[in-house]
Specification:
Blueprint: H1 4-35, H2 37-71, H3 74-82, H4 86-99, H5 104-116, H6 121-133, H7 139-146, H8 148-172
Length: about 170
């Protein structure tokens, strides 16, 4: 289990990082307003319009992620993966990772949970890399925004490279 002080420090560090991003963003926005007020207002209007247009798709993706995580909790994923041959487990972990979309700052502790549950390095790395690189849940939005050819190619290459990365990590560690 994690020490309470470590969790508190990680939380505090994340808050500092988030605050820094907001400060930098606000500073650049102010700089943009000073440089050219009309262009900045136009850009903000376009961003708001695009955001409204994508809101329904984003909410659908969030709903899909919640549904997937409700059906496949991390403990169940670990049970299934830990009982397999390492190469079968790696492919299975990669497949689970493609349908599970969570932020990286949540994924790393999840991988720790999987490793503690007995999942090896290769399956853990395959799960982590596909989790962050391949987006089955976001595919409809990606297809709509970038086109089917781009979405399929990016996801397929990401899956292949995730397996390669897992094999390399398994050989090194």
């Amino acid at each position: 289990m994690y020490d309470e002080n470590i969790i508190e420090k990680r939380s505090r560090d994340m808050d500092i990082f988030t605050i820094a991003i907001w400060v930098i963003t606000a500073g650049l926005l102010v700089f943009s307003f000073v440089k050219d007020k009309a262009k900045t207002k136009d850009a903000l209007k376009k961003a708001l319009f695009m955001g409204r247009g994508m809101a329904l798709s984003i909410f659908a993706v969030i709903f899909a992620i919640g549904l997937i995580l409700a059906v496949l909790p991390p403990e169940q994923i670990a049970d299934i993966i830990a009982k397999q041959n390492v190469f079968v487990a790696t492919i299975a972990a990669a497949a689970f990772g493609t349908v599970t979309l969570i932020p990286a700052f949540i994924a790393f502790p999840l991988i720790g949970t999987l490793a503690t549950a007995g999942v090896g390095i290769m399956p853990s790395v395959a799960f982590l890399t596909t989790l962050t690189m391949v987006g089955v849940a976001t595919f409809p939005l990606e297809k709509r925004e970038f086109g089917i050819k781009f979405a399929v190619t990016r996801n397929a290459l990401s899956f292949i490279f995730a397996i390669i990365i897992a094999v390399i990590m398994g050989a090194i560690l």
